[in-house]
Amino acid sequence: MTLAIVHSRAKLGVQAPTVTVEVHLANGMPSLTLVGLPETAVRESKDRVRSALQNARLDFPSLKRITINLAPADLPKEGGRFDLAIALGLLAASGQIPPDSLEHCECLGELALSGELRAVQGVLPAAMACREAGRTLLLPRANAAEAAMVRGVRIVAADHLLELCEHLRGERELPSVPAHTSVPVSHYSDLGDVQGQAQAKRALIVAASGAHNLLLFGPPGTGKTLLASRLPGLLPPLREDEALEVAAVQSVCGRGPMVQWPTRPFRAPHHGASAAALVGGGSQPRPGEISQAHHGVLFLDELPEFDRKVLEMLREPMESGAVHIARAREQLTFPARFQLIAAMNPCPCGYQGDPSGRCRCSAEQVERYRNKLSGPLLDRIDLHLAMHNEPFSLEHSGNNRPTTAEAAADVARARTIQLQRQGCLNAHLDLASLRDFCAVSTDDARWMEKAIERLGLSRRASHRALKVARTLADLEGTDAIERGHLAEALQYRQLDRQPGH
């Protein structure tokens, strides 16, 4: 047979579109032509494949006119992930392995010049797509643990090209890789270790219960970063589908299987991060920090120190839960359903309002500092909380309630109520659902309208305050939103009432 067809997968964001590798051998002037929009690393694969076959003592059909097509032709192909598929296609077309043995298989892997198989990036999305297609995945053993996170797909791994050839000929059966099993490891610090700051702990629990974004502002040393690091521990464990989405992003970033999989990610980028680093992109688009925080927490410390243009790019992902990157040849979408927790000082020096009077910032400096954050961005942060220094004590009272376990139980109960009632968390309610599930009495509605007018809140901020009130009612286990819930929700819009906003 002079024509062989092998299935493989490309890497397009966190997607793995199918690529059909067609290999044709014909008589004529000896040559090797590779078509199908290959980039440099793919064009170089013909040299790697030639050396790998020769060093593995397999026949390379050098006296034939070889044409290799990577279909579809309009999909860009990059990296060395197609080496294995091209090599097996050449072997099948030249009759060295049975062509029908590849009919129900997909191949991924880079070849060393010796014929050894090397790991490639983005295997997890390919394994998920392979499961949907109902095929067997052939890949390097170095990628086996990562691919085994996907249940229901048959995976065959090898260290060398010869092992796969013997397997496809039926001379040596390679065992299937067993599915990966992992128990979530709790490696987060306990909320009970934080002394005082009862109001901030309350806000943290509210944020965790409804997936609300949270902004903590106060002088240095009040525990803003300490509290932010406790938020992931309050969130419930990831479902299997969510864990695979998180791991797929890590796979595309080249990190392989997560050591703590399947726990929620916690990302804390430096305030000097560029737009591409935070949101994603680049000449070869990669997921940014907000995508790596998918189904987890994104912590932005020293929020006003971030470039304003970079912060403004967060607005759309905070609403849609995804990042859309457009390029001349392609459009990519990365998931970004993250929960934002941010921290900032009240003024440039950080000590505005300190009883010691150490702050020397002028009103103009304070206003300029706070105006680094736009109103539309602050509107998308549901909870604003001012923190203050509390008396220092070396004595441990033993009553630093709640602990992470106690708070996580409250969060889990509130989230269960929300999912049973509306199928999503309160922070993700749309306008139509807001009317259905966040109704208040006529008197309370009039009271809230007057309060919103007095505070000067925007329509978006008002809707988010109503969602927070719904979460407060869920934490208490009450069906109706009462005035106390509305009042507390409006108290969490403190930065809106500060000078400059």
UniProtKB/TrEMBL annotation:
Keywords: ATP-binding, Nucleotide-binding. It holds the Pfam family ChlI. CDD domains: AAA (cd00009). InterPro entries: AAA+_ATPase, CHLI-like, MCM_dom, Mg_chelat-rel, Mg_chelat-rel_C, Mg_chelatse_chII-like_cat_dom, P-loop_NTPase, Ribosomal_Su5_D2-typ_SF. Residues 288-390 form the MCM C-terminal AAA(+) ATPase domain. It comes from the Bacteria. One of its GO terms (molecular function) is ATP binding. NCBIfam families: PRK09862.1, YifB family Mg chelatase-like AAA ATPase. Belongs to the Mg-chelatase subunits D/I family. ComM subfamily. This is Magnesium chelatase family protein. It comes from Halopseudomonas xinjiangensis. The lineage of its organism: Bacteria, Pseudomonadati, Pseudomonadota, Gammaproteobacteria, Pseudomonadales.
